[in-house]
Structures are given as structure tokens and as C-alpha cells.
Amino acid sequence: MSGCGNIEHQFKAVTHSNSKITIDQINQWFTDAKLNKKITPEDTKLCFEKFKAETIDLTSFVKFLQDLSEQKKLPVGELEEKLASCELLTGGGTVANNTVGKKITDAMQSVVEDGHKPSKRTCKRMK
After folding, report:
1. Are 76 and 61 in contact (CB under 8 A)?
2. Domains within the chain, CATH numbers bracketed
3. GO terms for molecular function, please (predicted)?
């Protein structure tokens, strides 16, 4: 299941509805968005240190993304799109945004795609 496609919504999910984000939360979000091959924790640290704070708000985070995109020569739109649409495995506060919720969602989706309900025998095995 994908994210909602909105940076502000994802920011709130990553920060657990807090108004500020930490470098650790950013690095995990980048991992969830599969950006960690293009952008390392060292890259994010260098950009984050420019803010001279332990946490930054959404407005500063947008500026952080712009700085990071310039540093890594990546389009800022690509970063924003991947962050906005990624599945958060960091526990964004909803069932769909955690590993257990993903497993349940995947199981439900396979039932829908197969076009039938699981047998009683299958349900017993799932318990």
C-alpha cells in the first residue's frame, strides 16, 4: 500500500503528528522511500547541520530537500515524489503504515485478486 502522495501528510506520519522531524526520522524515511542508495546518512547529516538544530519543521524540511537535491544533483521533484508516495514502515500511526498492517493488507488483497474467500481450513491455519 502506498503513501498518500502528500509530503505534509507523510511528514506528520513520520513525526507521529509532531511539528518537527529529527535526522534519524529523515534517514528512516529516506530508507522507506528507497532513496538510501542515492542519498547516504552522511549526505543528510551535512545538509541537516546547516539548520543548527536538533529538529526542523516542515518549512525547513522543504528547504532541506532543496539543498540536498542541489548537493546530490537530483531533481527536488523526484525526492518529493518518492517521499510523498512511499510506504512508511516506521510506524506512521495507521495499520497500513506498519509491517503487521502490510501483511494483513497483502493477505486481504490476495483474497480479492483470487476472487474467492479463503476456506475455513485456510482461516484456521492463519490463526
Report:
1. no
2. 1-92 (1.10.238.10), 94-127 (no CATH)
3. tubulin binding
Do the beta carbons of residue 90 and residue 25 sit within 8 Å?
yes
For residues 22-43, average pLDDT: 94
Joined together, the cell numbers standing for residue 7 give 509530503
**pTM for this predicted structure:** 0.67
Give the tens place of pLDDT for each residue, 68-122: 999 999 999 999 999 999 988 754 443 344 444 444 445 545 554 555 555 554 4
First and final C-alpha spacing in the chain: 23
Kindly list the distances between the CA atom of residue 20 and the CA atoms of 23, 32, 55, 86, in Å, as whole numbers in the listed order.
10, 19, 6, 19
Q: Write down the residue that cell numbers 538510501 correspond to.
A: 36
